[in-house]
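Look at a sample.

——
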Amino acid sequence: MTDKNLPSYNNSFSSNSWEQDSSHASIRSNLTKKESLRIQKQSYKVEKKKVHNELKNTIQDPTVVIRSDWLKIRSTLKNWSRIWCVLKPGVLILYKTQKLKQWIGTVLLTSSEIIQRPSKKEGFCFKIYHPLDQVIWTAKGPSGESMSLLTHSLPSNHLILRSTTQSDGQCWMDALELARKCSNLLKKAMPTLDSQNTLSVGDVSMKEIDSVMGDDRDSYDEGLELALLKRKPSKAHSEKSTDDGSQLDAGDQSSEDPSKSHGNHLTVGQNEALVTSGEETGSFSSRVSSDAESNKSLPKVPESEYVLEKTDMEELGSAGEAAEDIASENKGLIWTILKQLRPGMDLSKVVLPTFILEPRSFLDKLSDYYFHADLLSKAARVDDPYERMKAVAKWYLSGFYKKPDGIKKPYNPIIGEIFRCKWQHPETESFTHYIAEQVSHHPPISAFAAVNKKDGFVVHGSILAKSKFYGNSLSAFLDGTVSLTLLNKREEYILTMPYAHCKGFLYGSMTMEFGGKVDITCQKTGYTTEIEYKLKPFFGGSDSSNRINGRILHGKKNLATIQGFWDREIYLTDLKRATTSIFWKPTPEIRAARLQRQVIAMNQQLPNESQKLWCHVTKAIEVGDQNEATKYKCILEENQRKGARERAKTDTLWLPKLFEYNPINENWTYKFLDKRPWDTVNDIVQYESDGCISTVTKNGVILRSPGKSRMIVDNENMIQSVKIMEESTNRSNDEALQVKLQADEDAKQTLLSLQEQQQHILLKLSQIQKSLEKHERSNQSYLFNNLYLIILVAIFAILAYYFK
């Protein structure tokens, strides 16, 4: 072998070795792909079987129930049948009896939609349907039962259900949305390849499974469980994995100082990070979101930053008659305003002077009823419905004693104005969040909501403020109803408000008092409280002012009477026990022990929030500078008029941010109102962020009112609802016009008919007159003929006698 041939030999050797290595690598890669594919197929079968077994066990397990109750269901023949409904994660099972016998059918909720349905019948009607008109029923029952004739009598692609009350229906819709979301928790993570082509299931790699199980690849499921058990428990500040596999560093979260960040950050203990599936933190408009972003997660849940309200500037007027003498320099302004008014005139468009203004907004004024919200917490825990009604009535009466000295009126809210606050309940470690918004200016409508799901109550409503001038006095009416719902009892209480009466504009001292009759009604239990606020009589003394009389009824049976003073002591007489006791008395001890209110920090408030919006007016009133207060008040009102003119030019409707109009009950409802009862096992805390009140669960999911369970969820639907209102108004106007035209036409027809009858009567009269004249002429001729005969007879008689 020569040296000349040596390089060629070396090159051929190296090329052959390279080919062998590449062939071995390709074989290994093929084996790795085949192995991974085999494991993936095997794990696919195992996971599919696990999901099937888990869903089957969930359906068959009698303890896994989200909600169960009697509901009325409409058949294809439009007949209503009373059926026992059991709601489980992902399915709604129908039974003929409450003992879970005689299965009727099972509805799949994962591919269905839920929507409220208007109905003429009593109660709350809603519909479960498939958006593509597909079958919503399962082929078999929980135990393999076949579909019966009763199932075939129901529609295949939808189901219409009806509950007895409005609150029950809302609870059912919220529970159905929750059941749809719970079905997603049954999905498991499938094995995937990471960047190094290492097969893993979630955060457990196949190497960990192989180290536990060895060559026994058929026991993949057991290997996965053993690998998870073999792992050491995570220490404090360890990484937490979310449902979608992402890692959250809890240590970094716990090390941050919440007071230095923007807003407070809620944590589950010290080592758990709260995550949300659904939406990121943003403005009011971004809060209205769907489930399209359910895969996103946030390590923190930012809450709005609240601070304790300073009580040194708070005015608590003394008990008794509220009276005030008008200063001489202000009487000229009063006379200038009174010259523009006429008895019976509405004062909503009259600009009032600032010296009679209370330095806070009307939205803030409406929150006075929740300084004793702990009474509602106690009412939600009472089992006796009569005692619950008494507790609700006591809470209602506790909101009137807080009043300023003298005669003061709060600011008229600017359209779009918002007010937020909350109260902490030390006894239950819960919060009552209050949200209010001015949804309309002409007419002035204020919508509000107070929520404490942990203690089991929700209050919401809308108030239309109207006022009338009567010469020396005026009355301010609060038109509207307030709804109080006790979540665990599924009871709804409807409350009305009294009117405020002021007098003494022309002569005498200015005084203010409440008047009118109010009702607190619970349709489910049949209990009603009637309270009458009495005005001071003309010749009455100081003891006759601020008096109330009332009674508690069950049906038509009178159970108790209420009497006293709404700003002092109130007595309740139990007619059955013949006992009288103090029902409510705002003593100094009770005033000092009331809940402390927290408001949004001024530097965190939005420009349209009440305290920030009216801050210049409030400061001027507090220092007694009426000219400065009037200047800033006129600026706000002129900006509001300017905005109204611009919207009128572009034909743009004002859309509230936090409340929506419900054309069914013709009321404004809080968009994020969630009437789902508090789950003591899974629910952790209730919080508010940017006007949205939500609930955080143990698994990090943030629950709020499900958007698809309501008829109006976003601006487009709000516009649609406003259009419905306009169409309804136009339709009402058209109907009124048609009725008027029809009435005019009927009047014309009646007039023509009367004219015809008159002509007919005149014709008859003329005919009768002619016949009378004819009859008279005939009588005259008859008399003439008879007279002629008599004369002839007489002549013949005379002649006969003469010739004789």
